[in-house]
Amino acid sequence: MAEEVGLDLEELRQLQNIAKRPRVLNLINSEISNLEKLRDSAAITSNAKPEVPVTVPAPVSTSVKPVSPSVSYVTLGTFSWDQDNEKVKVYISLEGVDQDNVQAEFKPMSLDIKIHDVQGKNYRCAIPKLHKEIVPEKCKVLVKPKRIVITMFKSSRGNWLDIHYKEDKIKPSLEKEKDPMAGIMGLMKNMYEDGDEETKKTIAKAWTDARSGKAADPLKGL
């Protein structure tokens, strides 16, 4: 556009030089003035720097999220249980429980049940070590109107003496396994100490025969 305006001005100035009548000169001068203004305006526009939009950074939130307090639980230490050869059932008496608020964690040798938001309280029933192993993926929790039923499937069929782990009290004596006669000798000693004279003579003879190899059973003849 600036180039076209320049060419028009050049041609008008040539006409201005050859024009003689005042009215024609006035028209030419007026048009030259208009074109000069248009030229100057175009020059200013072309030289002006494009306006760059200023991006205002979004405000960064510096607020710290509140840390939720640790959940406290009321321990449920009282419950009932029964069993058959394949499973063990635990019964917890508690009303107003929502099935969605029960969190159960089953492991091969432990049980941990957490019950949230029951009339403003949280409850927990845990058995850190069961009597024997269970199958966690088969275990389940069922919420009823007045109680919670926990079903645990035994890893091996059989009867549990208790739901909690306990050491087997009946263990064979290693010494007796090494010496089968030890128990018999102990019995003879007690009989000798508590017996009358005739009994003591008989036991003494049997003891002597057993030590000398004459009798395989030291109690024979008693």
UniProtKB/TrEMBL annotation:
InterPro entries: CacyBP_N, CS_CacyBP, CS_dom, HSP20-like_chaperone, SGS_dom, Siah-Interact_N
UniProt-recorded name of the protein: Calcyclin-binding protein
Domain annotation SGS: ranges: 149-222
UniProt KW keywords: Acetylation, Cytoplasm, Nucleus, Phosphoprotein, Ubl conjugation pathway
Keyword Transport in annotation: no
Species this protein is from: Camelina sativa (False flax)
Ranges where the CS domain occurs: 74-164
Location relative to the cell: Cytoplasm; Nucleus
Gene field: LOC104757348
Top-level taxon in the UniProt lineage: Eukaryota
Methyltransferase recorded as keyword: no
Lineage: Eukaryota, Viridiplantae, Streptophyta, Embryophyta, Tracheophyta
Role of this protein: May be involved in calcium-dependent ubiquitination and subsequent proteasomal degradation of target proteins. Probably serves as a molecular bridge in ubiquitin E3 complexes. Participates in the ubiquitin-mediated degradation of beta-catenin (CTNNB1).
Main location: cytoplasm
UniProt xrefs under PROSITE patterns: CS (PS51203), SGS (PS51048)
